[in-house]
Amino acid sequence: MHQPANMSEDMAAFFDHRASGYERHMFANVEDVVAFYASLADALPLEPASPDVLDLGIGTGLELDALFDRLPHASVTGIDLSTGMLRRLARKRRRWPGRINVITGSFLTLDLGTRTYDAVVSSMALHHWIPSVKLDLYRRVHAALRSNGVFVNADYVASADESERRLQAFASAGRRPDHHDHVDLPLSEDREIDLLRQAGFSTVAVTFRRSNACTFRATVPGETREATG
Fold this sequence. Notes:
This protein is of the alpha/beta class. It contains eight helices and seven strands; from the N terminus they run αααβαβαββαβααββ. It has one domain (11-219): 3-Layer(aba) Sandwich (Rossmann fold).
Protein backbone atom coordinates (compact mmCIF):
# COMPACT_ATOMS: atom_id res chain seq x y z
CA MET A 1 0.00 0.00 0.00
CA HIS A 2 2.49 2.60 -1.17
CA GLN A 3 0.85 4.19 -4.20
CA PRO A 4 0.15 7.92 -3.84
CA ALA A 5 -3.47 9.00 -4.23
CA ASN A 6 -2.64 11.05 -7.33
CA MET A 7 -1.26 8.10 -9.30
CA SER A 8 -3.43 5.19 -10.43
CA GLU A 9 -4.25 2.65 -13.07
CA ASP A 10 -7.31 0.57 -13.84
CA MET A 11 -8.10 -1.63 -10.84
CA ALA A 12 -8.67 -4.86 -12.76
CA ALA A 13 -5.52 -4.36 -14.84
CA PHE A 14 -3.48 -3.49 -11.74
CA PHE A 15 -4.34 -6.81 -10.06
CA ASP A 16 -4.20 -8.81 -13.30
CA HIS A 17 -0.59 -7.68 -13.75
CA ARG A 18 0.31 -8.53 -10.16
CA ALA A 19 -1.68 -11.72 -9.65
CA SER A 20 1.31 -14.05 -9.83
CA GLY A 21 3.15 -12.22 -7.05
CA TYR A 22 0.20 -11.00 -5.00
CA GLU A 23 0.39 -13.57 -2.20
CA ARG A 24 4.15 -13.15 -1.82
CA HIS A 25 3.62 -9.40 -1.58
CA MET A 26 0.98 -9.75 1.14
CA PHE A 27 3.08 -12.13 3.20
CA ALA A 28 6.03 -9.77 2.95
CA ASN A 29 4.14 -6.56 3.74
CA VAL A 30 1.31 -7.30 6.15
CA GLU A 31 2.42 -7.41 9.76
CA ASP A 32 1.59 -10.77 11.44
CA VAL A 33 -0.04 -11.84 8.18
CA VAL A 34 -1.10 -15.33 9.32
CA ALA A 35 -2.76 -13.90 12.41
CA PHE A 36 -4.32 -11.17 10.26
CA TYR A 37 -6.13 -13.62 7.97
CA ALA A 38 -7.01 -15.87 10.91
CA SER A 39 -8.62 -12.87 12.62
CA LEU A 40 -11.17 -12.61 9.83
CA ALA A 41 -12.28 -16.22 10.32
CA ASP A 42 -12.16 -15.96 14.10
CA ALA A 43 -14.63 -13.06 13.97
CA LEU A 44 -17.26 -15.22 12.28
CA PRO A 45 -19.88 -16.92 14.47
CA LEU A 46 -20.06 -20.72 14.54
CA GLU A 47 -23.83 -20.63 13.98
CA PRO A 48 -25.31 -21.33 11.57
CA ALA A 49 -22.98 -24.24 10.84
CA SER A 50 -23.59 -23.93 7.07
CA PRO A 51 -23.66 -20.19 6.51
CA ASP A 52 -24.04 -18.31 3.25
CA VAL A 53 -21.03 -15.99 3.04
CA LEU A 54 -20.36 -13.14 0.62
CA ASP A 55 -16.69 -12.28 0.05
CA LEU A 56 -16.10 -8.79 -1.40
CA GLY A 57 -12.88 -8.67 -3.42
CA ILE A 58 -12.12 -12.36 -2.97
CA GLY A 59 -8.97 -12.19 -5.11
CA THR A 60 -6.81 -15.29 -4.73
CA GLY A 61 -8.71 -16.31 -1.60
CA LEU A 62 -5.97 -15.83 1.00
CA GLU A 63 -8.61 -15.78 3.75
CA LEU A 64 -10.35 -19.01 2.67
CA ASP A 65 -8.13 -21.58 4.41
CA ALA A 66 -8.89 -20.04 7.79
CA LEU A 67 -12.55 -19.48 6.90
CA PHE A 68 -13.17 -23.10 5.88
CA ASP A 69 -11.16 -24.41 8.83
CA ARG A 70 -13.64 -22.61 11.09
CA LEU A 71 -16.76 -23.18 8.97
CA PRO A 72 -16.16 -26.23 6.75
CA HIS A 73 -19.75 -26.29 5.52
CA ALA A 74 -19.93 -22.64 4.50
CA SER A 75 -21.04 -21.63 1.00
CA VAL A 76 -19.02 -18.67 -0.26
CA THR A 77 -19.95 -16.27 -3.07
CA GLY A 78 -16.91 -14.25 -4.10
CA ILE A 79 -16.90 -11.04 -6.15
CA ASP A 80 -13.79 -9.65 -7.84
CA LEU A 81 -12.90 -7.47 -10.82
CA SER A 82 -9.65 -9.21 -11.68
CA THR A 83 -9.75 -12.29 -13.91
CA GLY A 84 -6.06 -12.82 -13.20
CA MET A 85 -6.67 -13.07 -9.46
CA LEU A 86 -9.67 -15.32 -10.00
CA ARG A 87 -7.61 -17.70 -12.15
CA ARG A 88 -5.29 -18.09 -9.16
CA LEU A 89 -8.29 -18.74 -6.95
CA ALA A 90 -9.56 -21.40 -9.38
CA ARG A 91 -6.50 -23.52 -8.62
CA LYS A 92 -7.51 -23.62 -4.97
CA ARG A 93 -11.23 -24.23 -5.39
CA ARG A 94 -10.76 -27.99 -5.74
CA ARG A 95 -9.92 -28.02 -2.01
CA TRP A 96 -13.53 -27.04 -1.30
CA PRO A 97 -15.63 -28.65 -4.04
CA GLY A 98 -19.01 -27.02 -4.49
CA ARG A 99 -18.35 -24.47 -1.76
CA ILE A 100 -17.34 -21.40 -3.82
CA ASN A 101 -19.28 -19.46 -6.45
CA VAL A 102 -17.38 -16.68 -8.21
CA ILE A 103 -18.80 -13.53 -9.81
CA THR A 104 -16.55 -11.36 -11.98
CA GLY A 105 -17.52 -7.74 -11.51
CA SER A 106 -17.67 -4.77 -9.16
CA PHE A 107 -19.37 -5.04 -5.80
CA LEU A 108 -19.97 -1.29 -6.07
CA THR A 109 -22.57 -1.90 -8.77
CA LEU A 110 -23.67 -5.54 -8.46
CA ASP A 111 -26.88 -6.32 -6.58
CA LEU A 112 -25.87 -7.79 -3.21
CA GLY A 113 -29.41 -8.89 -2.43
CA THR A 114 -31.62 -8.37 0.60
CA ARG A 115 -31.33 -10.61 3.68
CA THR A 116 -29.34 -13.04 1.52
CA TYR A 117 -26.23 -13.79 3.61
CA ASP A 118 -25.36 -14.83 7.13
CA ALA A 119 -21.97 -13.14 6.85
CA VAL A 120 -20.17 -10.72 4.55
CA VAL A 121 -16.37 -10.63 4.63
CA SER A 122 -13.64 -8.66 2.92
CA SER A 123 -9.86 -8.62 3.24
CA MET A 124 -7.57 -5.89 1.94
CA ALA A 125 -10.13 -4.81 -0.66
CA LEU A 126 -12.08 -1.79 0.56
CA HIS A 127 -9.35 0.82 1.12
CA HIS A 128 -9.62 2.18 -2.42
CA TRP A 129 -12.68 4.44 -2.00
CA ILE A 130 -13.68 7.66 -0.29
CA PRO A 131 -15.91 7.63 2.80
CA SER A 132 -19.18 8.44 0.98
CA VAL A 133 -18.75 5.49 -1.39
CA LYS A 134 -17.82 3.18 1.48
CA LEU A 135 -20.84 4.32 3.48
CA ASP A 136 -23.14 3.46 0.59
CA LEU A 137 -21.47 0.04 0.28
CA TYR A 138 -21.73 -0.58 4.03
CA ARG A 139 -25.44 0.22 3.91
CA ARG A 140 -25.88 -2.26 1.07
CA VAL A 141 -23.90 -4.85 3.04
CA HIS A 142 -26.16 -4.23 6.04
CA ALA A 143 -29.23 -4.78 3.85
CA ALA A 144 -27.74 -7.99 2.42
CA LEU A 145 -27.29 -9.56 5.85
CA ARG A 146 -29.85 -11.68 7.62
CA SER A 147 -30.90 -11.18 11.23
CA ASN A 148 -27.86 -11.57 13.51
CA GLY A 149 -25.62 -11.31 10.45
CA VAL A 150 -21.99 -10.30 10.70
CA PHE A 151 -19.78 -8.12 8.49
CA VAL A 152 -16.04 -8.66 8.93
CA ASN A 153 -13.71 -6.24 7.16
CA ALA A 154 -9.97 -6.87 7.53
CA ASP A 155 -8.19 -4.01 5.85
CA TYR A 156 -5.44 -1.43 5.82
CA VAL A 157 -5.86 1.60 8.06
CA ALA A 158 -3.88 4.82 8.35
CA SER A 159 -3.41 7.63 10.80
CA ALA A 160 -6.02 10.36 10.59
CA ASP A 161 -3.42 12.77 9.13
CA GLU A 162 -2.19 10.32 6.47
CA SER A 163 -5.74 9.40 5.51
CA GLU A 164 -6.75 13.04 5.13
CA ARG A 165 -3.67 13.79 3.01
CA ARG A 166 -4.57 10.99 0.60
CA LEU A 167 -8.23 11.99 0.45
CA GLN A 168 -7.31 15.60 -0.34
CA ALA A 169 -4.94 14.49 -3.12
CA PHE A 170 -7.69 12.30 -4.55
CA ALA A 171 -10.19 15.18 -4.48
CA SER A 172 -7.68 17.44 -6.24
CA ALA A 173 -7.27 14.88 -9.03
CA GLY A 174 -10.95 15.23 -9.98
CA ARG A 175 -11.75 11.55 -10.35
CA ARG A 176 -15.20 10.02 -9.98
CA PRO A 177 -15.91 8.93 -6.40
CA ASP A 178 -17.07 5.48 -7.57
CA HIS A 179 -13.97 5.00 -9.73
CA HIS A 180 -12.40 1.71 -10.81
CA ASP A 181 -8.84 3.01 -10.57
CA HIS A 182 -6.36 1.48 -8.16
CA VAL A 183 -5.88 4.24 -5.60
CA ASP A 184 -5.02 3.62 -1.94
CA LEU A 185 -7.27 5.65 0.36
CA PRO A 186 -7.13 3.91 3.76
CA LEU A 187 -9.14 5.51 6.52
CA SER A 188 -8.38 5.78 10.20
CA GLU A 189 -9.68 3.18 12.61
CA ASP A 190 -12.09 5.68 14.18
CA ARG A 191 -13.50 6.76 10.83
CA GLU A 192 -14.11 3.16 9.78
CA ILE A 193 -16.01 2.54 13.00
CA ASP A 194 -18.06 5.70 12.47
CA LEU A 195 -19.03 4.67 8.93
CA LEU A 196 -20.14 1.23 10.08
CA ARG A 197 -22.29 2.75 12.79
CA GLN A 198 -23.78 5.23 10.32
CA ALA A 199 -24.63 2.28 8.07
CA GLY A 200 -26.82 0.84 10.81
CA PHE A 201 -24.70 -1.87 12.41
CA SER A 202 -25.70 -2.34 16.03
CA THR A 203 -22.31 -3.36 17.40
CA VAL A 204 -18.89 -2.54 15.95
CA ALA A 205 -15.66 -3.89 17.41
CA VAL A 206 -12.00 -4.06 16.42
CA THR A 207 -10.92 -7.67 16.91
CA PHE A 208 -7.38 -7.40 15.51
CA ARG A 209 -5.04 -4.44 15.37
CA ARG A 210 -1.54 -3.96 14.00
CA SER A 211 0.35 -0.89 12.81
CA ASN A 212 -1.21 -0.79 9.35
CA ALA A 213 -4.21 -3.13 9.55
CA CYS A 214 -7.35 -3.78 11.57
CA THR A 215 -10.14 -6.32 11.54
CA PHE A 216 -13.57 -4.80 12.12
CA ARG A 217 -16.56 -6.91 13.21
CA ALA A 218 -19.98 -5.33 12.75
CA THR A 219 -23.28 -7.02 13.53
CA VAL A 220 -26.90 -6.70 12.46
CA PRO A 221 -29.33 -6.90 15.36
CA GLY A 222 -31.45 -10.00 15.74
CA GLU A 223 -35.18 -9.94 15.32
CA THR A 224 -37.20 -9.22 18.43
CA ARG A 225 -40.39 -11.09 19.19
CA GLU A 226 -43.42 -9.24 20.48
CA ALA A 227 -44.73 -10.48 23.79
CA THR A 228 -48.07 -12.29 23.55
CA GLY A 229 -50.80 -13.11 26.04
